Amino acid sequence: MKISVLGCGRWGTFLAWYVNKVGHQVMLWGRDNSRNFQRLQETRNNDYLALPEDVELGSSLEQAVSIAEIIIISISAQELRSFLKTLNTLNVIAGKTIILCMKGLEAESGKRLSQVVGEEIGKNVNVAVWVGPGHVQDFVAGIPNCMVIGSEDVEVTKQIAQAFNSDLIRFYYGQDLIGNEIGAATKNVMGLAAGMLDGLKYSSLKGSLMARGTREISHLIRAMGGNDITIYGLSHLGDYEATLFSPHSHNRKFGQALVEGERFEKLAEGVSTVKALKELSIQYDVELPISNALYKILYDNHDAKDTLEELFLRPLKFEF
Ligand SMILES: NC(=O)C1=CN([C@@H]2O[C@H](COP(=O)(O)OP(=O)(O)OC[C@H]3O[C@@H](n4cnc5c(N)ncnc54)[C@H](O)[C@@H]3O)[C@@H](O)[C@H]2O)C=CC1
Ligand SMILES: O=C(CO)COP(=O)(O)O
């Protein structure tokens, strides 16, 4: 199949590498002025991998979209809406399948990224998400993992999963788009919290964070009309090792750097997702104590140690 990957950062470049490896014809698109794109053009390398010669690099968005049946998008979540507005003006997207390979929510509205596609592009495309655990560093070292593809159309889900399945990534068919999108975005929030615990030398609390984090987000998924069991699947709990424990996780590193008084400059999607969760907790009237504590730390300048310790002072309650 002809596939174009839009976004040539850490993950987008890996996706182009992977989709080429499993036998598809791939174009990786980036903006002319992007440092990532320029470096790939000059060296075909980034910090993580070397791109094979048969992955085409392109900077014309119109060309990248018009030549492909499947369009994979992997840019920062907060850029998606404006990016789609630009894409829409080119009039080449109708009839394509868009796969969102990004883990975030729109910060101001709390909207899921597939909803943003629906609002900006309309109904004349198929939309799927490809989420779950995986770091470029592990995949290029040949370490396999499991991931999940989901959409509102089971035939689209199956077609994509079958086209991309390999002995490096085993795909499962997602059955709950709301749960998969909320789960994928919010695992980054738990990653920020895990990093803060690491920085505070409270790493032994990460087991409790896993238990209470999943419970908190399952309430939100149910309130939003999803299936609360999805939280225990690949998009959320299955991604905890790669986020709460992995030395590669940007979200975990961001949280750790914050409590250590350092700055972590790379994209940590959880920071914007914390804002989205504040909005969703109001919209759906769901209590999200861990996410709310992170909001106070990140947006109201509360002290991380005090704020996380305050979680222990709440009234006792039943576990489930
Ligand atoms: N296992 C998985 O499914 C993984 C998923 N991700 C997700 O992938 C997404 C991207 O993350 P990274 O690649 O780490 O970020 P990154 O910062 O390395 O790459 C983002 C890329 O998007 C481009 N970009 C940003 N705004 C743009 C715009 N308006 N128009 C065109 N291009 C734009 C940037 O130039 C950059 O090349 C995130 O949502 C992240 O959560 C990341 C790693 C693993
Ligand atoms: O989603 C990821 C791993 O599955 C990447 O996580 P980070 O963005 O925290 O590095």
UniProtKB/TrEMBL annotation:
Keywords: Cytoplasm, Lipid biosynthesis, Lipid metabolism, NAD, NADP, Nucleotide-binding, Oxidoreductase, Phospholipid biosynthesis, Phospholipid metabolism. The active site is at 187 (proton acceptor). InterPro entries: 6-PGluconate_DH-like_C_sf, 6PGD_dom2, G3P_DH_NAD-dep, G3P_DH_NAD-dep_C, G3P_DH_NAD-dep_N, NAD(P)-bd_dom_sf. Residues 2-155 form the Glycerol-3-phosphate dehydrogenase NAD-dependent N-terminal domain. Pfam families: NAD_Gly3P_dh_C, NAD_Gly3P_dh_N. It is found in: Cytoplasm. It is an enzyme of class 1 (oxidoreductase). It catalyses: sn-glycerol 3-phosphate + NAD(+) = dihydroxyacetone phosphate + NADH + H(+); sn-glycerol 3-phosphate + NADP(+) = dihydroxyacetone phosphate + NADPH + H(+). GO terms for biological process: carbohydrate metabolic process; glycerol-3-phosphate biosynthetic process; glycerol-3-phosphate catabolic process; glycerophospholipid metabolic process; phospholipid biosynthetic process. One of its GO terms (cellular component) is cytosol. NADPH binds at residues 11, 31, 48, 103, 269. NAD(+) binds at residues 7-12, 266. Its EC number is 1.1.1.94. PROSITE patterns: NAD_G3PDH. GO terms for molecular function: glycerol-3-phosphate dehydrogenase (NAD+) activity; glycerol-3-phosphate dehydrogenase (NADP+) activity; NAD binding. Pathway: Membrane lipid metabolism; glycerophospholipid metabolism. Sn-glycerol 3-phosphate binds at residues 103, 132, 187, 239, 249, 251. Residues 176-308 form the Glycerol-3-phosphate dehydrogenase NAD-dependent C-terminal domain. Catalyzes the reduction of the glycolytic intermediate dihydroxyacetone phosphate (DHAP) to sn-glycerol 3-phosphate (G3P), the key precursor for phospholipid synthesis. Belongs to the NAD-dependent glycerol-3-phosphate dehydrogenase family. This is Glycerol-3-phosphate dehydrogenase [NAD(P)+]. It comes from Falsibacillus albus.
